[in-house]
Amino acid sequence: MQWSLFLFILMGQSFFCTCHLYVYHFIGENKTWDEAQKYCREKYTDLATVSDMTDMERLRKSTETLTEAWIGLHSYPGKYNRTWYWSLPGLKFNENQTRWDSGEPNDKGENNHLENCVLMVGNSIPNQKWNDYPCNGKLKFICYNETKQTNKSFHLINYTLTWPQAQRYCRENHTDLVSGLDQLDDNSVKSGSDVWIGVFRDTWRWSDGRNFSFRNWEYVEDLVDGQSDKTCATTVLNRAGKWSSADCNEEKPFFCYDDKLILISESKTWVEALNYCREKHYDLVSITNVHQQRWIQERVKNASTAFVWLGLRYTCTLDFWFWVSDEVVSYTNWASGVESDDCDMSAVMERGGRNQWFKKPDNETFNFICSKD
Prior knowledge:
Radius of gyration: 22 Å
Keywords: Disulfide bond, Signal
CATH architecture of the largest domain: Roll
Distance between the termini: 29 Å
Protein name: C-type lectin domain-containing protein
CATH superfamily of the largest domain: Mannose-Binding Protein A, subunit A
Structural class: alpha+beta
Order of helices and strands: HEHEHEEEEEEHEHEEHEEEEHEHEEEEE
Helix content: 10-25%
Number of strands: 21
CATH topology of the largest domain: Mannose-Binding Protein A, Chain A
Number of helices: 8
Shape: globular
Largest sheet: 7 strands, mixed
Strand content: 25-35%
């Protein structure tokens, strides 16, 4: 039974897929931000959402034009419209897991500077107390680095920069500003003075409603909120794609994106889900890197079941896990202790928590995600 099903899966669709989960389109017409948003929603999916530096490189390479263009980021000014984020893309900020010092955050910046960035008090280690602080202040900072071999290291940078400058330095020379309680609790994270960590807040939101925290501002004023009439974001391609804020009524070219995924809210067994995707769309979704994991987990959060089927199945006959799209199983996100091998099992992603993968019997029923092409 296992061998015949494996052959059926491969014969039904045997190829090596190098497609992207979404594609960017540069539109050279000059439109206001609202007009650009309407155009993208009618022709594609929405104005461009950018989740990390991988996206930024793809966005820049989608056109040879060196100009300023709208992306799908819009600000809703107001002191009470701000949301806290971790700097590291894909890491969710939990309001119930913080290290605020007594009376913090207090937003008591001088000269009307809002305190939208966070420092770790130098003499608070090991308790690691946090203070909110104006982003244009200059402090030392800690970078986090993770290699392909998953080796993690932390680097105290002993000269002072503003928070956006520190973030840019860490991203260009390491991975990002130190982010998340797991990183902050590492024994090698040490400092004798106040340092920037990867926490910030702002009023900017993505047009498609996604909650990505990635920002690529060129100037600190844009992170802090900018002027009230500059509430739409652009990418300035002749300045390495750095972002700037602009008046939404200005007319500029823009980037749209077209999503190649669809969440199916019906509950089906794994084989039923596979057949549905292949008959009506393309295939059950594959995940081959952390970048795709971040994009897909945003979609999974809207599921009506606690888990969502992926296109990953275990074959007892050949004793390995395989993607139905023939992609190599090079990246995984298994929850601890569940990756052992069992017959008649396929992979799901959890809707909540850390969006990790679990194995479930094929005859259970869940929502699932299809790739469109």
